[in-house]
Every structure is written in structure tokens, then in C-alpha cells.
Amino acid sequence: MKKTNGGRIAACIGFVVAGVAVGVHLQAQGQSRAGQSVPDPVAPADAAVLRAQYEQWRQDFKTWGRWGAEDNKGASNLITQEKVLSAAGLVRSGIVVSLAPPVPQVAAADVNEDGLFRRTTLRITDGGTADNYQVSYHGLTVAHMDTWCHFFENGQMYNGIPVEGNLTPEDGCKQGSVMNWRDGVATRAVLYDIAQLKGVEWVDPSVPITRADLEAWEEMSGVKAGPGDVVLLYIGRWKRRAAEGPWRGEVAGYYADTIPWIHERMPAFIGHDFNIDWNPRPGWEGMRNPIHIAVLNWMGINIVECLDLEQAVTTARQLDRYEFLITFAPLPVEGGSGSPLNPLAIF
What we know:
This protein has helices spanning 5-30, 47-60, 81-88, 194-198, 211-221, 237-244, 259-265, 290-299, 310-319; strands spanning 96-98, 118-124, 129-134, 144-146, 167-168, 172-173, 185-193, 230-234, 269-272, 302-305, 323-328, 338-340, 344-346. Mean pLDDT is 89; it is low at 1-34. The protein contains 9 helices and 13 strands. Helix 8 (290-299) links the parallel strand 9 (269-272) and strand 10 (302-305).
């Protein structure tokens, strides 16, 4: 249950005062990186320990079989009818906000040629027009969801489904495709406003978001994610992009120490306004996207990323409400490993 405003301020006043002082420095640092020489990132002190733990977590945090041997939805099974009704009760103001940026139609640092959304006007007549859309949505700019067909390890997808026989160029993915979510998602979203936590306009792209950050925000805001929720991590990606231009390579994403937190909370989806994995990852060389692997392959938690959370953050700050109803549905593409999305936050 959310704390009262007065109770939250009383509980967090010391933290906030200290955070603002530190945040002013970080804000200046974060907004002065463009055009400057940036030193090579240094591996965090706990990198070697976490890499060793990661190999153990690979066994400890698997939810394979939890919802049956033939399960196709993983943690989305936690979005029950009761969960939907509870989330609908969060609608109190009637404010509806899109969580998707305009699709990219111009190449940029974070939009490669494959990632362009191609809209082709086919004809214009006296009576109307028609057009064609084409996009490779997995990437850094289009708001989209990933299913666990998108990432696999050792020839297996989530729940031990073998890639061989389940995934072909002709048919796409048979089990675990977006068709499992064709009826849509409606559940509770919890916004983790890390920029506000750190007292900055946006988080420095090279900074990892740690478990301590997530828990500090929970203490500050009075809300925390739980089973069947959608976690929305805000770092101010689009605000920084508007001010300093597009970039790629550096992402203030989830750090590896958040994996036990994710397993404990067991949301249905992990979200972000950029790619969910912290990048680059000094000390993690040779391991691809550890957060993607942990959620999609081990836990059956899906991903929604490249979201535009700016308007939602503005609304949440004005209302002082960081939980709300979220709803979205993928395109019902047979065999699809994900889908472009236009999620809606409803306050």
C-alpha cells in the first residue's frame, strides 16, 4: 500500500536532501558528456563475484515447469482475472498516456537501416489513399515487446523447449510466439523514476541501475512491483536524446545485481525507455545481454523496451502516483518473436 505523502517525506527526508546534493553533481556530469572524450569504463568491484553468482542463478532462478510442461506464457500467468480487476481500480483520473515514441523514419546513431520504419504511400486517388508499413522492430528505437522466442541458450528456449523443431524461417516460432498475448495485457504498472531519485534530468548513459537504486526508489515513492506487474524503468532517454542527439552503445540499464530482485518480484514484464541491459558491461565481456537471458530464458518474464515514458513521468509526478493501469496488445502475427507496441498508461 502506498504511504501518505507526509509519511513518505518524514521517512525519506534525509535521503532526499543527500540525494539532491549528489544529484546536482550527477546532472551536470550527465549533461556534459556529449562531444567530450569519455574514459573507458571500469569494471565494478563486484563484477567477478556477480559473474560467479550468475552461473548459480542460471539454475536457482529458473521457473521452468512452474506453470506446466506445456506452458507458453511464463510469468504472464500471474496476470489473473483478479489481477486485472485490481489494476483497473487504479484508474482514478481518466488520463490516458501513450508510452511509445513516434516510429523512426530517418537513420540516426540509434536507428540503423534495418530499424527504419518504412511507410510507403501506394497510391493517391480522388477518393483516398493506401500505404504499406515495413519495419524490423527489434532494436534501439521502436517500442516493442520481446517474447522468449527472441533469446535462447544451449539450443533451448524458456521452459526447456528445444529450438530445433520449434523455430524455422518459414513458420517462425511455434511455442512462445506473440500469439500467446493476442488477447492483450492489462495489469498494474509500477514506474521507477530513477532520474528523480538521483535528482537529475536524465541518468548518465554509462551508469548501471542497481538493486539499491530500485529499492531506494521504492522507499522514496512508497510503491513497489509485485507478481504479474509491469516494471517501467525511467532514465530520461528521450529527454536526453532531444537535448543532445541520438547515441548508441551506452545504456543506463539494469545491472546484474537486479536479477535476484526481479526473481523475487516476479513481474510479467520488465520495461525500460531504452534497451533493458546496462551497456557496455566491463567485467562481463563474452556474455551477451545477461538481463535478457535471465528474464526471457530462465524466468519466462517478457520485455517491453524503447518506451517513451516522458509524458507518463510528467503525469505521475504531477499526481504523485507511480502505479497505474497499463494495457497493450501485440500484432497477432503467427510465429512472431515479438511485436511493435503502443502501450497505454491509464491513471
